[in-house]
Amino acid sequence: MRTDSAGGTHEWDKPFGDARLCAAIADRITFRCTLIQTGTESYPFRTTQDSRFAAAD
């Protein structure tokens, strides 16, 4: 399974509104997983931004 987040891990609790709930969900998802932080911008995020800037011109 692969997940992607445009924000850093410090922002993961914002969609859920509860840091404890977010921690529990992340704990279940990441159990026995290998986490890789690439430090790069995601392709979907970049293409969305590019299309928005092109539409604004």
Number of helices: 2
- Give the radius of gyration: 15 Å
Strand content: under 5%
> Helix/strand/pairing class, anyone?
mainly alpha
| Order of H and E elements | HH
Low-confidence stretches: none
Cα-to-Cα separation, first versus last residue: 38 Å
Question: What percentage of residues falls in helices of 4 or more residues?
Answer: 40-55%
Give a nutshell description of this structure.
The protein has helices at residues 19-30, 43-56. It has 57 residues and is an all-alpha fold.
Features:
mainly alpha; 57 residues
Report on the structure:
The structure is a single chain. With 57 residues, the protein is mostly helical. Helix content is 46%, strand content 0%. The longest helix has 14 residues, at 43-56. The protein starts with 18 loop residues before the first helix and ends with a helix.
SSE topology:
Elements: H1 19-30, H2 43-56
